[in-house]
Amino acid sequence: xxxxxxxxxxxxxxxxxxxxxxxxxxxxxxxxxxxxxxxxxxxxxxxxxxxxxxxxxxxxxxxxxxxxxxxxxxxxxxxxxxxxxxxxxxxxxxxxxxxxxxxxxxxxxxxxxxxxxxxxxxxxxxxxxxxxxxxxxxxxxxxxxxxxxxxxxxxxxxxxxxxxxxxxxxxxxxxxxxxxxxxxxxxxxxxxxxxxxxxxxxxxxxxxxxxxxxxxxxxxxxxxxxxxxxxxxxxxxxxxxxxxxxxxxxxxxxxxxxxxxxxxxxxxxxxxxxxxxxxxxxxxxxxxxxxxxxxxxxxxxxxxxxxxxxxxxxxxxxxxxxxxxxxxxxxxxxxxxxxxxxxxxxxxxxxxxxxxxxxxxxxxxxxxxxxxxxxxxxxxxxxxxxxxxxxxxxxxxxxxxxxxxxxxxxxxxxxxxxxxxxxxxxxxxxxxxxxxxxxxxxxxxxxxxxxxxxxxxxxxxxxxxxxxxxxxxxxxxxxxxxxxxxxxxxxxxxxxxxxxxxxxxxxxxxxxxxxxxxxxxxxxxxxxxxxxxxxxxxxxxxx
Length: 543
Prior knowledge:
The chain has about 550 residues and is α/β, with parallel strands linked by helices. Strand 17 and strand 18 (about 490) form a beta hairpin. The protein contains 13 helices and 23 strands.
């Protein structure tokens, strides 16, 4: 749609009032007080591998230094033990089961079909009304937001999300004196690194690693564990480079810095499992001015708390649609979290629906398909030598009793673990009479959570697709409307929770439309929303 200084009727004034009225938040933090926030994200890692949680296998000096300057969180969790659904929770403050992003993986920008063997195309779920990437709220309040460089949110990220999202994205590219939020993702410690980097130099001896009881103790297992520790050293060096740049720029002391894992570890029974090895994450937060340095925090934290917490630090009231609670900042919620919840659904071409609830002491897991084992035949994971070794031992009856629990069929309908006495979740207590009250209570808590959060896992995935996309494709947002009043251009979308973005000719990133644009500039604009195709571009020329 192209306009050359056109004028539209004032009949749009009601819509215009609504569009302008949902602009800025009334409560703000002054620009000079807005903290810079940096996220350092390690892929596929559990707390058990890190020095700040008691593992002395390999020194990680940069992460250790950050933990000495910050707060170490002992009970932080991902709501899904695999990356794309977990990242959808981080970026929205919502449970993946409420968003429709609970299956791994739904959206793939590079493939027309993700899983042709089960007939599921690549799709971007139609998220509930009002759901946005939280960075959009930061950008509206003057933050420069950069992502280097992994997105993978299980939906197509709208152009409203980032000022930069690529391998060159960096806070150093921001306008002078602009507060920033910057994400750096470290892929070197990803699950695939266990086999892709398995022949590279090891920085620890396989003989020196501790083998947890749920793995057999043999040379293959020890080698893969040593590979992971070696990859952590490589990751730590990359973290150090980012911290050095912050210090060079005089930003380290007064920035808030997160270091965290995007879910549990890279191994079998870690990634894709609802045990703590799959959902519990390392989390260190260095506060402004290094306040509370050296502390350990035992509160229960879920990824859904990250988005509201960052908004709260920036002086932005978290929107009501977010299911997480701000843990810090001017809008911090004093409510003590009693439970964290996690889910499992599809992993690549395999379905296995599970739900769990965890308190500080107990974990309850409900298995909806007991006929299959936890050791799903996920082709991607089967490239790992450790997985191949365990499968071979299981097939020949040589796998020890504890490691073989992960392969058992049928698996129990319910699992209950006392995490104080059994941190590896090996002894199922669901049939213990003395814990019957705990079992009934957690069973009810989980059922209520599924109902209250509108758990979309109750629908088969193909049924969800037909509900969202009855015409077989994502709905498209309607073209923008324009109102020209004096020298100001107002833009309006008929979709109330869509975001309008715009840019001048030649610009590389889209800005969020917050206030009327000058009629003296040329620009292009469009409406965007998660799950929808962008509106037709609106082109305004001053010629």
